[in-house]
Amino acid sequence: MLAKVMSCAVVGLDGAIVEVEVDISPGLPSFTIVGLPDAAVQEARERVRAAIRNSGCSFPMRRITVNLAPADLKKAGPAYDLPIAIGILLSSEQIYADASKMLFLGELSLDGSLRHTNGILPMAALAQDKGSTEIFVPADDANEAALLDNIKVIPVVSLAQLASYLRGEKSIPYHKSNIEWTNADSTSVRFDLSQIKGQEHAKRAIEVAAAGGHNVLMSGPPGSGKTMLARALSTIMPKMTLPEALEVTKIYSVSGLLSQDLPLINQRPFRSPHYTISHAGLVGGGHWPRPGEISLSHRGVLFLDEIAEFSRISLEALRQPIEDKVVTISRAQGSISFPANFTMVAAMNPCPCGYYGDAVKECRCSAGEITRYQKHISGPLLDRIDIFIEIPRVEYEKLIDDDLGETSDLVQKRVQAARQIQQSRFQSTELVCNNDMTPVEVKEFCQVDPATQNLLRTAMKQLKLTARGFHRILKLSRTIADLDGANVIKANHMAEALQYRQRHSN
Predict the structure, then answer these.
(1) Strand, helix or coil at 50?
(2) In the chain, domain spans
(3) Per-residue pLDDT tens for 343-371?
(4) Are 281 and 292 in contact (CB under 8 A)?
(5) Is the pLDDT of residue 502 over 90?
(6) pLDDT bucket at 183, cuts 50 / 70 / 90
(7) In what order do the strands lie in the sheet with 343-348?
(8) 185: which residues sit within 8 A by CB, 6+ positions away?
(9) Rounded to whole angstroms, how far apart are CA atoms 310 and 376?
(10) 80, 272, 436, 480: most buried by Cβ count inside 10 Å?
(11) Backbone phi, then psi, for 192, in 5-degree steps?
(12) Which CATH number is associated with domain 186-499?
C-alpha cells in the first residue's frame, strides 16, 4: 500500500516542500530510502525502526521503499524521521488520517520521543505560505514554530502520542506561543558607552555609524579602547523591529544556534570572529552551504578585530556583501543566497608592534614592515568604509576621572530619532538606513546648498575620492544632518563627514 506524507527541506534560508512516499510491498524484508538522502537521512532507517517498535506499534517485515520527492533536491538532516515513521504507519494501516494538509517535522529517538530539530522556523513559514492546516513539530520547538501567525502548531512529545492522536484516541491542544514581542534593552546585558573613558571623538563617530548603518575602521595602539568601542556600538543601535527579529531568528534556526528557552532573537547580533577563521566560516559555505559570520551578524554588528591579520581572500570576499547586503555561495549543485546586511566595525594596530605614531612608546618596526602591514587591506575594501577613526592612548587623568559620559540609552534615543527620519524618507522603498541608498536615492535625498557644493568639489580633488567615495561622503553627511534634524546637508555636516575620511596612507 502507498502512503504520502508532507515534510519540508531547508534550502539556504527558505523551505521547500518534500513529499515522503512510502510503499510497502511483498518480498524479502528491506528498508530503502531514495531521493538524494544524505548520511543522516539514510541513518533514519535504524531510528525509525526502533522508534516504531518502542512506541507500541509493529514494524512491517516486508519490502519498504521510501521516496523523498522531488528527487533532484538534496535531503539533509534528521527532520525526515517523523514523516517517514508516519508514512510507514499509514501504509501498514496502523493509523488512519488524511495527511494531505498536514506537515510533519522532527528527529526521533530510539524510544520514540522527538528531539529538537534545526530550521523549524523557515519550515513553518513555508507551511504558512502553502496553506497547511496543521504542522506537527517536536514539543521543544513548538515556541519557535508558533512565532508565525495563522498556523496551527501541534507539539509532539512522542511517536506513540502522535499515533494515538491520528487514530482519534487522544487530543493534542494547539500550541500558542507564550512569547510576547518586546524590544530588548540591549544595555542591560552589553557594554555601556558611559564606561568608556575619554575618546569623545570616537564615541561621536560610532553614534554616526549607528544612526546610518555606516562601516567603521579604528586604528590605534593596543589597549586604547577599540574593542570596547565596538562592543558599545551594538548598545546604541536602534532597537530591532519584529520583521528584523524574525529574519535574524531564521538564520540562527538554520545554523542550530537558536536557544530553545528564547526562540526569538530580539537583540541585534554582535559577532566577533577570530582572525584565524576559515573563509567558509566567515562568508558561509560548506558542501551544503550554511550561513557564515557575515550572515549571523545580519541586522547587527560584525566586529573584525586585528583586521590586518585576516586572510586576504576572506577580506576581499567581504566587498560584494558590503555593497549588495547579500552573499551568494555557488556550488556545483547550484547557488544559494544568504542575507548579510551588517554594520562592519574593524580594528587594527597602526603597525605590527602596535606603537607607530604613539607619543609614549617607541615603535620597533621598520618602514617596510609598516607599509606591508597597512597594505594588507586593499584599496577597494577601504573604499567601502565610511568612517576612519584614530584611537589614541587614554591619558591618566581621564582614566581616574569619576565623571561618567553619556549612557548608551541616551545616545540610542538620538540614534532612534535619526532612524525614524530615515524610515519616513524611505517609506516607499525597501531601504532601512542611509547606508542602503543607491546612487539614485543619493541624488534624490542628499541635497546640498551651494557652499557645501564648493566644499565637496574641493574635497574630491584633494582626497582623490572615487565615485563610490563621493556617494559615501554624501550618505554620511545625510546621516549627520539627520542627527542634527536638518532637511538639507550643510557645510558643517559635510565637514564632519570629510574628517572621517582621514586614514593611514597605504
Answers:
(1) helix
(2) 2-167, 186-499
(3) 999 999 999 999 998 889 999 999 999 99
(4) yes
(5) no
(6) low
(7) 270-271, 301-305, 343-348, 216-219, 387-390
(8) none
(9) 9
(10) 80
(11) -95, 140
(12) 3.40.50.300
